[in-house]
Amino acid sequence: MIKYKFYATLLDKYESYINSSRIYQQYYGFAENPSISEEDFEKQQFQSLIDTINRVPFESEAASKGTAFNEMVDCIIENRKSEDYEITSFKEQNIIRVKDDKYIFDFPLDISLKISNLLKGALTQQFCEGNLPTKYGDVLLYGYIDELMPFKVVDIKTTSKYNAFKFRHNWQHIVYPFCLIQNGILISEFEYLTTDFKNIWSETYTYNQEIHLPKLIQHCENLIEFIEQNKHLISNKKIFALDAI
């Protein structure tokens, strides 16, 4: 019987919260007068996690830009129009423009086509789920895979600044292969394909059931303990499997 429902972004948020001290030192450790104290930063991470659990709407231009870029790439791969965006290419200016009711984003046409060509033939936005047994009951892990290739999973990332192994603490490269294998699809390779719209980087991980499954179970059990301890702050009942996804 499923008792909880988690998705990869939620596991990432919990990862950020429990490692708030490390993240604080990474961004503020060398500042003489940091704009925020470590204690307040941890409080922010806590609230961000609670908001993610409760599905509090969050919007930023950076996140919207990433979503628009992903949709544009999917449209090129599938040779289709978008239902949510107006997409226009201007070859002479090397621009592909993606527009919705709120934003207009101009992406480099050459970078966009290069990434799309790398993903030619992919199945886009594929829903996957898998049942994970824990000592607190079963957890349904679920999410949408950006690009499902014949032998690997690819997630498209956009960033203003890239550093090596940027996504090593993310959980997508563990959750999605786990879900696929649960459903008889034996794909263990996961690639983060990242761009700052000037360069493209590839960051690849291989899922190893013996190594990663115990870590996934432990992380989910720790998150369950956090959720139960803070149950009074949680309004989203889906996380307790009391509603459909």
Shape estimate: globular
Question: Which class of the largest domain in CATH terms?
Answer: Alpha Beta
Strand content of the residues, in percent? 25-35%
Determine the number of helices (DSSP H or I, runs of at least 4 residues): 7
Outline the biggest β-sheet. Answer: 6 strands, mixed
Radius of gyration: 19 Å
What's the helix-strand series?
EHHHHEEEHEEEHEEH
Instruction: Return the CATH topology of the largest domain.
Output: Lambda Exonuclease, Chain A
**How confident is the prediction overall: mean pLDDT?**
95
Number of DSSP strands? 9
The rounded distance between the terminal residues' Cα atoms is 15 Å
Quickly give the CATH architecture of the largest domain: Alpha-Beta Complex
**Poorly predicted parts:** none
Total count of domains: 2
Helix and strand content put the structural class at alpha+beta
Helical percentage: 25-40%
